Amino acid sequence: MNHKRTAGIIGAGIAGMAAAIRLANKGYQVEIFEANQYAGGKLSEIEKDGYRFDAGPSLFTLPELVEELFLLSGEKPEDHFQYIRLPVTCHYFYEDGTVLKAFADHYELAQEIASKTTEKKETVLKALQRSAALYESLSDLFMKKSLHRWQTYLHPKALKAYQHLHRLDFFRTMHQANRQLFQDRRVVQLFDRYATYNGSDPYQTPATMNIIPHLEYNRGAFFPTEGMYAITKSLQQLAQRLGVVFHFQTKVDKIIYERGRVKGLRAHGETQMFDLIVSNMDVVNTYNKLLPDFPPPEKLLQQPKSSSALIFYWGIKNKFPQLDLHNIFFSKNYFAEFNHIFRQKDVFEDSTVYLNITSKYKPDDAPANSENWFTMINVPNNTGQDWDYIITCARENILSKLSRILKQEIASLIEVEEILDPRLIEQKTFSSLGALYGNSSNNKYAAFLRHANFSRKLKNLYFCGGSVHPGGGIPLCLLSAKIATDQIPAVMG
Ligand SMILES: Cc1cc2nc3c(=O)[nH]c(=O)nc-3n(C[C@H](O)[C@H](O)[C@H](O)COP(=O)(O)OP(=O)(O)OC[C@H]3O[C@@H](n4cnc5c(N)ncnc54)[C@H](O)[C@@H]3O)c2cc1C
Predict the structure, then answer these.
(1) In testing the pocket of ligand 1, which one of 223, 308, 429 has its CB within 8 Å of the most ligand atoms?
(2) pLDDT tens across 123-151, in order?
(3) Ligand 1 atom nearest residue 285's Cα
(4) If you take atom 32 of ligand 1, which residue's CA is the nearest one?
(5) Could you tell me the distance, in angstroms and rounded to a whole number, from the CA of residue 383 to the centre of ligand 1?
(6) Residue of 17, 37, 42, 86 to test ligand 1 pocket, by largest number of atoms within 8 Å of CB
(7) In a designed cystine with 131, which of 123, 213, 233, 320 is the match (CB 3.0 to 4.6 A)?
(8) Whose CA is nearest to atom 1 of ligand 1?
(9) Per the confidence metrics, is the pTM higher than 0.90?
């Protein structure tokens, strides 16, 4: 009898779908079990009264990782997924009235910063070179391979990386490195901000994380022409074309194993057998909820989690020509803001506000003469704070900050409102503590303390998504699916 090899995937997040596509291409018959009635997890969308909002991620980097999935499947990416490169990555607003446009072009960026602050052009260019050098030394080893297989450490690319270990800047914090390089505190703040791209604290995360600006400035920031949700939609459709079966509103309750080997899963009281299982569920909850009798890797699961977010999706009945797709309104006191998020576990009254407006590039996301504002602040992960109270205060503080800086009263322009807080993020995606990016990167060992993309103790159990190696964010989640499925042999014949 010819038994088709089968794979069960828990969760249709971006990594779960990428793993499904890769396994279908390896000859597996793949089924995805998703608790929600939609795919994408954090990468979903909200529609309300003529407005459309991307619900989660808004910054898109390394689009080639999405394209790779189409190419692997023998399809032309541009037939299914289109995007543009942004000429300006962000508009930065400071309380002292400074406004900076972060041009994608290095020289324009350096010129803009030099003309509006006391920083020299050469220093900005040097920072971008530093970032590129870090990426060059680190990405092959830390982002593209399993850190949990000895072969990785003998790979020629790893051997090359060892020669550059001195460049990796493990022993200073990101903030210390930026303060030593730049003299203008506004520029330090701009470069410190990149710690938030993986939910970390610039005053704790190692300077190695100065790798992140490379993605935005050297590799580019992009926007899918149909909005971020197009990433989810196009991958779901690709998976379906490859024969992957999606079971929506189907929460997996248990992973079934026998004598150290995974056998299947249980959902809606029914057991289904699979040759292998890939969990895209947060790894802490995979162990705690789906494998309650199996001894968990305590130390890895107890690592501190990344920050979370509080988001107000506002339909605004006006247009603001001074705003772009990505906008940042900086806090006056960045140190206090992060101290509140990571040490006091509460929310600073003057939080940095991130404002994303997709209707700038996709006008049908808002009615005529209106804009769809995704208004977000970084907040601590959910440890039982009084979120209703925090939301009330934060809403008032954000409105007062935006009204002050934009010189226009905002509250009366809001005609649609939806709110997402850490409790809801946890509920909707089963992310431990509602963290956006799994573990934080607030210490130099963080990369080695993420769970592997496979289980050492349960054969045929694999992991992908933001809570495991190499970490959170769309590009890393897509890479996690690649690393996980690289461990799985293709079906022969
Ligand atoms: C507000 C916000 C802003 C962000 N901004 C950015 C950004 O600008 N750029 C960027 O790159 N990244 C950003 N991120 C991070 C990025 O969204 C995530 O890292 C990424 O989408 C996580 O994907 P994932 O595959 O780990 O799965 P998730 O999106 O966490 O989805 C997991 C899925 O598994 C399902 N599931 C879990 N358990 C079960 C179960 N037992 N049974 C069935 N289904 C289950 C869940 O329902 C969910 O659909 C942001 C995230 C948020 C929330």
Answers:
(1) 429
(2) 999 999 999 988 887 777 777 777 777 67
(3) 38
(4) 13
(5) 19
(6) 42
(7) 213
(8) 56
(9) yes
For the stretch 63-108, pLDDT in tens is 999 999 999 999 999 999 999 999 999 999 999 999 999 999 999 9
Query: What domains can you pick out in the chain, each with its CATH number?
Result: 1-36+248-304+444-493 (3.50.50.60), 43-104+220-228+307-436 (3.90.660.20), 106-218 (no CATH)
Averaged confidence pLDDT in the chain: 95
Q: Give the span between the Cα atoms of 243 and 285, in whole angstroms.
A: 28
Q: Which of 280, 356, 381 to mutate to test the pocket of ligand 1 (most atoms within 8 A of CB)?
A: 280
Q: What is the pLDDT of residues 151-208, one digit of tens each?
A: 776 677 777 767 766 677 888 999 999 999 999 999 999 999 999 999 999 999 999 9
